[in-house]
Amino acid sequence: MTGNETEEKMGLLDGRTAVITGGAQGLGYAIAERFVTEGARVVLGDLDPDATAAAVDSLGGPEIAAAVRCDVTVASEMEALLDAAGQRFGPPDIMVNNAGITRDATMRTMSEDEFDQVIGVHLKGTWNGTRAAAAIMREQKRGAIVNLSSLSGKVGMVGQTNYSAAKAGIVGMSKAAAKELAHHNVRVNAIQPGLIRTAMTEAMPQRAWDQKMSEIPMQRPGEPSEVAGVALFLASDLSSYMTGTVLEVTGGRFM
């Protein structure tokens, strides 16, 4: 292959604009990184302006990426995020609802506020993002929405009644939205990661880590890049006949 042929090779997302919530670090950043390598321009919505600005620099600077402060629980801020993306790079073709928090505690000790916070960020935040993106994409007659659920939404985890409920809700929401938007050529799919090696999971107690590892047939945690690869598949035309699906990225855990 000649140098010119290499330069002309098309990326799977060439010319497309992607919006990613919680994009400053962890899975969100890994997804942004993968999208950029496939030709997309990305807009990162996050509450941490310093981390988001650093992520933009790492991704290649303002010609490729942009940072917008966004509280996903506030519908107007989500709409502003998508508007900013449109003004900067063009109307969003891809929306990844990834922003999330944990407030783990047993149901007996969990406060009402801890429950509401997790439901607000994960479930309402994903609804806000899906709804705002759909309003734009249905006019364009094209688009892909990727929602991050979790294995916790499939099996339920001790100490995560809030998180498990929110992540299960994202699956139901994604399927309902997929049915509403299919005739507009807008696809909605979800990903359920299992144990992925991030700063958050590596901070868990060793006993908890070992317990989770013992449940994984592949006998290793996943890497953020492995979730990003699935997000790329769902965001690209490789999955053009898929909507309302839930893809597990778990190493076979709880299959």
TrEMBL record:
SMART domains: PKS_KR. Its EC number is 1.1.1.100. It holds the Pfam family adh_short_C2. Keywords: Oxidoreductase. It comes from the Bacteria. NCBIfam families: PRK05653.1-3 (NF004198), PRK07231.1 (NF005559), PRK12826.1-2 (NF009466). InterPro entries: KR_dom (IPR057326), NAD(P)-bd_dom_sf (IPR036291), Sc_DH/Rdtase_CS (IPR020904), SDR_fam (IPR002347). One of its GO terms (molecular function) is 3-oxoacyl-[acyl-carrier-protein] reductase (NADPH) activity. Belongs to the short-chain dehydrogenases/reductases (SDR) family. SUPFAM superfamilies: NAD(P)-binding Rossmann-fold domains. It comes from Pseudonocardia parietis. This is 3-oxoacyl-[acyl-carrier protein] reductase. Residues 16-199 form the Ketoreductase domain.
